[in-house]
Amino acid sequence: MTQPLFLVDPTAARFELTDLAAAQLPVTDLSAHRGDGIFETVLVSMGEDGAVVVNRERHFTRFRGSASALELPEPDQELWDRVIDRLIAEVAADDPGIVEFGIRYAMSRGEQDEDGRFRPRGWAFPVPVDDHIRSARVHGVTAVSLDRGFDAYIGSKAPWLLIGAKTLSYAVNQAAGRYAAAHKADEALFVSHDGIVLEGPTANLIIRRGDRLLTPDPEAGLLSGTTQQLIFDHAQELGLTADYADLRLDDVKTADGAWFVSSMRTAVALSELDGNAIAVDEELTAKFQSIVRAG
Ligand code: PLP
């Protein structure tokens, strides 16, 4: 089975289908050796009425915001919508029974031409919902807290840190995941240097306190999550309020429920932090998961 890959030329508003296994990115592309680019990962949920691209608009809005933060050309929504729709059609044709999968789409600064101009390059390909994700949805995850190395709310004073942009520079996030694994935890939970809880390397955190859902304020120094926002949209129908708040590790450890939420995992219960058990709310976990899958 070949896997589709769409190579996108954002400058010419063109894209072409190729084989994911065969495709190669020139090493001179600035994404390859500088991580200079942006990306999104969306969940596609296949239902009887067709495919739902969960939070499609929110993802694109963030993609546009990331492009702006990195001073990349503004992405053309119509072009990227066509790419996503074609990719869904390719995946569904190859596997008509598929229930869900992800799509990762990206735009790099590309390469410099003789005149010193950069020609951005884009691509999009499917990513599977694998056993690791499925297991986390059912069993939840454990985490260790890690110092993110900056104080909360530094972003406005230090825009070059690109806080809030979803860039291709994920080496730190990957390293945090390895550190967590080496310390027998499934996940890392970043905390600002001054003790404010931020996010996981690839997920946001939501906690429940009584009938309140709370999540760290994106302004504190984290990526504003599409999944967290979708869950907050539905809080009222769950009989809950939803607010941004500065949380400390003790707030998470003593919560009535805590979740890592992200596009591919939907919502997974955080059952243990730094060796402390956290209450698991299975009913609400299931509700969060179905809210996200429904888009
Ligand atoms: N925070 C970081 C650093 C992420 O990389 C991600 C997603 O990959 C998230 C949060 C969750 O964002 P979303 O719910 O939009 O997938």
From TrEMBL:
Entry GO MF terms: transaminase activity
- InterPro entries in the record, alphabetically? Aminotrans_IV, Aminotransferase-like, BCAT-like_C, BCAT-like_N, Class-IV_PLP-Dep_Aminotrnsfr
Alphabetically sorted, this entry's keywords are: Aminotransferase, Transferase
Query: Does the keyword section mention Transferase?
Result: yes
Q: Which PANTHER family match?
A: AMINO-ACID AMINOTRANSFERASE, AMINODEOXYCHORISMATE LYASE
Task: Report the family membership.
Answer: Belongs to the class-IV pyridoxal-phosphate-dependent aminotransferase family.
Official protein name in the record? Aminotransferase class IV
Task: Name its species.
Answer: Brevibacterium spongiae
